[in-house]
## 1
Amino acid sequence: MLNVGRFLLIFFVCLGSAHAPVQGQAIPNEYRLKAVFMYQFPQFVEWPSTTWQDVQAVQLCIASPNPFGSELEQLVRGESLNGRPLAVREIAGSDELVGCHVLFVGARSDVATPVLRAAAGRPILTVGEGDRFLESGGIILMKIVDGRVRFAVNATNAAKGGLRISSQLLSLALTVREGPQ
Amino acid sequence: MRRWFARLPVHRKLVTSALLVTGVSLVLAMLGLSVIDALRYRATAREDAVALARVIAENTSAAVAFRDADAAREILASVRVRDVVTRACVYLPDGSLFAGYSTRTGICPQTVPEDRTWVGVFGSAVISRNARTQGSVYVERDLSDLRGRLLVTGIAGILMFIFAATAAYLLAQRVHAVVSGPISALAQFARGYGENPYAEPPALTTAPDEVGDLVKSFNEMLTRVRTTSADVTAANRQLKRSNEALQRENEERRRVETEREAALSREREANRLKDEFLAAVSHELRTPLNAMMGWAQVLATAPPSEETIRKAVTSIVKNARAQTRVIEDLVDVSRIATGKMRLNFQPLDLRSVVASTIESMEPVGTAAGVRLEQVVPRDACFVAGDRDRLQQVLWNLVSNGVKFAPGGGTVSVTLTRRDQEIEVAVSDTGIGISSSFLPHVFDRFRQADGSLTREHGGLGLGLAIVKELTELHGGSVFAASEGRNRGARFSFVLPELSVEVQEEQPTEETALPSLDGITVFAVDDNDDAVAMIAASLESAGAQVQTFTNPMDALAAWEQRPADVLVCDLAMPHMSGLDLLGSIRRLDSSRGVFTPALAVSAHASEQHQAESLRGGFQFHLSKPLHQEALVRAVAEAAAHT
């Protein structure tokens, strides 16, 4: 709390009980939930207005390997954002980063560090796992707390890339880190 | 209610009507406004609910997206500031309740509610992101603030009503003064009219409207009523007068009836008295006649002795006198009754009347064995009266006393001078008068004993004549008796003649004038009468020629007239007047005038006047008194 510009606020969200759409299997369940989050996050984020010039589709890029399987693709099929259809693309290196609007960097990604470094400072919403993700330039960190998906936000990193996070999203975040790093 | 209103005075009706109209209009207006207000408020409330739902939907979209129910609940809790919200519920797309805000009046149902399960006004909104439905929001609010608004409206309405009612009341009072004031005044006058019908109606200033017409009509009606009631009063007065007249007439009729009955009973009594009287007259006339007839037959049948003749003549004369007396009484009564009694008033001393009466009655009293007394004062007792009549009065009283006094009794005549009056009282020691008969003693034809077997004769006229004659003298009579066998006292009182007048001394009864050398024609169809006249005059020295037929007399007169004619009036073939007329014609041819003397049984003054008009100088009524006849002839002869 005393840290100037940075706060980490952990917030537990109770996701309902029996009606929660969480299935029995651990891993797939975890990523099924995270896939939903992946789908929801872009809707509470504003990209710089120049980003969408001549853009046909909103690209959700996943640093390989893809932990969601086909879950995310099924989820976004037919959906759109700001009038543009959503597309899921797996990338294997930072050179494939061009055209990505959202980038997921899993904890077990092979190319985590170079991709994340390449994405930092660009208008790409980075979502990742791992304790050091936010310090490494990531914007939204997803983690499991009490069996439920929570997230923390580093607004400073987002601002670097010209992204604006909705206040509604920020109000739901466990922690929000702002200010210069 | 209607009846109550109908009983109100007019001005109250006006005020009440005004208040009623005002109140009803105001209430209706308030109600309408309230309804409109409520409807509008309800619509506004619905919009409000919808707007709130939308805000909630917007704010909770992230929470719903990331299924953060706590965050959603926190957002929902913010509606607490709107205390009209009873519940706000967020549902997921599958219809399950995600988060809810509840108050004690409402709980969020577990699934999306059907509209009808919500009681208040509610609004709903869809939670969406990128045209994708994420869930829905339902907000319900109550209308408690509407009730507040309505309460305020109601209070405002009541205040307005009070204000409007006051205004209406004041206005109605004003209107009353103009409209119903005249009506009230009229009504008040009409009420008072019953108590005082002569009060003038109040001067009502009236406008030319219906009220004015009413007042005018009322006044006209009043005038008519007054006229009519005056007529009725007049008619009543008339009726009353008629009633009184009728009553008077009835009373008059009753009175007449009573009088008629009294008169009828008097008449019956008079008839009875008349019958008794006729019987008495018949008896009184017959009795002396019988005696005379008896003696006359005795004289006629056999040559009577000197003694017999003397007795006969005495009896005959006595009875004739009695009969004469009866007839004179009858004539007197008749004269008095018909008002033809003439009195020759002159001053006279009653002492002389008493003396002469006692003197003339002395033989009668002696014959009956009754003593006659007189008590007279020494001073003269002058009255104005007719000597003969007063003597007759006294004679009647004395003979009455003698008649009823038994032998050895006394009849006394007492003359008393009193204050301006002179009383003559005749007392006897006779049988007296019963008290029941006493009041009737002076009645005509009355006798104490009216039966045929009565002891005392007479016509019952004596006392009646006494009374009438006394009253003609301005006096009055009295009768008193202490009862049977205790005598009676009759008296009469005359006013004293106060001026001392020298009484005209009656010429002393001188000797009859001599008729020597006087020739007389006596004409009467009755032999006895003419014989009596001749005997009377011849005894005085006259030479008398008698005629029973006037024709004979006239024939004789033509041969040699007489100095005096004495002639009966009622004769067959030629009346006394005719005879006199013929003789006068003869006389005039000879240039002489013969005095004539009528004798008539008709003694009334009318007959007397008739004969005098017919040329007779004297009229003597039968029965003739010798002395009067002689004097009359002597006087007539002196005229020649």
## 2
Amino acid sequence: MGQFLHEFFSPLDFIRSTPQVWDGFKLNIQLMLVAEALVLVLALLLAIVRGLPGRAAVPLRAAAIVYTDFFRGTPLILVLLLVQGFAQLNYVGLSSQTLFRTGLIALTLVYTAYVTEVYRAGIESVHPSQRMAARSLGLSYMQAMRYVVLPQAIRRVIPPLLNDFIGLQKDTALVTIIGLTEAVAQAGFYSSNYLNDTAYMVAAIFFIFLTIPLARFTDYIIKERERRERAQAV
Amino acid sequence: MSANGHFVSLQGVTKRFGDLEVLHGIDLDVAEHNVVCLIGASGSGKSTLLRCINLLEQVEAGTIVVDGQTITGTKVDVNRLRQKIGIVFQAYNLFPHMTVLQNVTLAPRKALGISRDKAEAHARALLRQIGLEEKADEFPDRLSGGQQQRVAIVRALATGPKLMLLDEITSALDPQLIGEVLELVRELADSGMTMIVATHEMSFAREVASKVCFLDAGVIREEGTPEQIFSSPREERTREFLARVLEAGRL
């Protein structure tokens, strides 16, 4: 028992490793913030493209489907390696700047595919009569989308969307595979230097503290909506 | 006005959903300031006909002329056309995420490009006319069905349409709420609005219609003045339909 506690919960190693792991964790936070912002916008555009009507939009719709199928089906770790391979192919070198971009692109590619589907489900959940009413007032397709369909759709998908973002936050740890020294990598360095795994617990705690507020916020939004809908039903 | 003096003119309008032909060669003329009521059983094509007139449905054959413009051809600006034609649906279809005022001002602001202040002033004036000004900042959920439908009518009027299409607008309402909606439609008719009204309210049709058309299986089986259709229908099918309505009314 004492050995177990020492291996994972040594106070000395806890204090000593925290600054080092935190140093790496800043990278996770950066990746997460930039990727989430990109994903929010790109996935929305892709979801709109997937829903475009008419025969003229067939190639666009098909491209969007191929995209989501590919990046939803491919493990993130593979996408990271593929994007890295692509970067090396173009001789862009291996500066930390490039590595950061590589990780960011891979995370964005994969999570855009997930979130596109979330948005799409939201758009499809808005009753067609809403769009019809908007069009009948003389609004264009895109105006009906922007002012009538999307506001209702996005409101409905906020909980699943935040859920995907929790996944994204944790998956920022995977960029360690392409050589970015984020929190898990730093913890690994510490662990092999001092032959003690407490640094991994420190990294775990950082991740947990990052996701808990988001998870509670998701719960709050779901509850709040249930409350409102019950109020309406009375 | 189109060449033959009618504000709306349909010739040979045919609409199919897959193998199902919903409208077979409909001819219909509506003069300006007139109210035409479409009666007939559910599924007879009344709603589809209305939707074809503002191009929510594409017709397979035939021509529709509205205000001198052939709208069934190519190169029709559907958005511009729909600003001239208001449609009100059975299920109101108000936008639940917007207040009453936002519902009414959306099309004037975004489709017509009217400033927010102007659009809101106009919307409030319209809401005042129907006694709902104090509901301007409420969400539709807070309103009764009758109030929601009156807001939907005002929303359709806000772009200044020259033609109103009413698609069974009282069918989803509790009986005690029907009156307030019909009263508003009556006022519209009195103000000279050209209207095509699909309805199951026979006494209302009798009162406001300039012309009544009986639709049956996608054709206009009989048309005439309300007096003629309701008092001395010529067609057997019309008599049967009216007898059924009468019976349902008694039950």
